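Lecture notes, part 5. Sequence design as translation. It can be helpful to think of inverse folding as translation between two languages: the language of shapes and the language of residues. The source text, in structure tokens, appears below.
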């Protein structure tokens, strides 16, 4: 029998967490068939042993699977392996170091059924860190359901409304089959969910929101998102920016431009030398983005650097084309 949901869990150095999350999955009050796929990204610790121990208490109605990468490939490849192995009608991704409520699956599934099983159902997330905030859709005043591509795209691309992370999003498996772009880019090992969100927005036509929080997002110091590897940031963001700048389209063109600009501004704080490459990418995208759309992005470089208190002559020396043409008041 085809499972209704395939849960995909990428795991790396998951010994402290995998047992906790699997026990919460076992305790779900969901009465439909579902499978759970754990993909171990060649963890150097005893993640396989921790999984085997947790698997001993797996209920018989859950199809539990374990996949291990032969070498460390990063979160994008690891998630894709789980998606490719999934046989369910819907994909639901969790991170191994997060937690879920006992009614997580049933709440999201009931929302899907209520609105005729849309392309995607997004569940509310509580985050323990004030740096990230939380996606409480009830407080944000977002609609329960949108039934057109333009409305769905506008919501997905707006990361202030819906977080860009793939966690707690119920997505039709056939969407991955018909839109290969929404698989994660395997050459990107940092901020891969930004690129994923950009293309996911282009694929979704119908979308429902679950306004009851069912997922707890945790920031773990050893997690990949907490790395200080500037080379990893630089390589990943270079690939992402160069890609998305060439694929901005209608509808919701302004929303896509805001997404690119937002992540660029965040990135510039990490590695100022990236500005040179970013400027060149914006100018190379001239056939895809008009000057009126490129100008605010370039002006954003100056505003961010001003906050960093770089002197104006430094900016003119390193970005003569930008600051020779734009006002710096």
């Amino acid at each position: 029998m085809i499972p209704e949901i395939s849960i995909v869990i990428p795991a790396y150095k998951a010994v402290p967490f995998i047992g906790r999350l699997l026990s919460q999955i076992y305790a779900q009050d969901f009465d439909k068939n579902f499978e759970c796929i754990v993909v171990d990204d060649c963890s150097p610790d005893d993640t396989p042993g921790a999984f085997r121990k947790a698997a001993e208490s797996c209920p018989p109605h859950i199809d539990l699977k374990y996949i291990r990468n032969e070498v460390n490939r990063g979160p994008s490849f690891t998630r894709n392996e789980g998606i490719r192995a999934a046989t369910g009608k819907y994909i639901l991704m969790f991170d191994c170091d997060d937690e879920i409520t006992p009614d997580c699956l049933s709440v999201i599934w009931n929302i899907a059924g209520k609105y005729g099983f849309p392309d995607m159902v997004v569940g509310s997330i509580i985050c323990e860190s004030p740096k990230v905030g939380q996606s409480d859709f009830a407080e944000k005043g977002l609609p329960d359901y949108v039934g057109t591509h333009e409305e769905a795209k506008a919501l997905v691309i707006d990361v202030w409304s819906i977080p860009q992370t793939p966690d707690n999003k119920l997505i039709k498996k056939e969407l991955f089959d018909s839109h290969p772009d929404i698989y994660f880019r395997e050459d990107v090992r940092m901020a891969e969910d930004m690129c994923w969100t950009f293309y996911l927005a282009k694929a979704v036509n119908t979308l429902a929101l679950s306004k009851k929080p069912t997922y707890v997002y945790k920031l773990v110091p050893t997690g990949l998102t907490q790395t200080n590897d500037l080379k990893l940031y630089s390589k990943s963001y270079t690939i992402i920016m160069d890609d998305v700048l060439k694929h901005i389209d209608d509808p919701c063109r302004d929303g896509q431009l805001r997404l690119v600009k937002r992540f660029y501004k965040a990135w510039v704080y990490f590695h100022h030398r990236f500005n040179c490459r970013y400027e060149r990418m914006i100018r190379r995208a001239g056939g895809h983005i008009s000057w009126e759309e490129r100008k605010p992005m370039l002006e954003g470089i100056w505003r961010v650097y001003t906050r960093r208190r770089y002197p104006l002559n430094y900016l003119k020396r390193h970005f003569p084309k930008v600051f020779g043409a734009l006002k710096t008041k």
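The translated text above is only one of many valid answers, since several sequences can fold into similar shapes. The chain has two domains: 5-222, 228-325.
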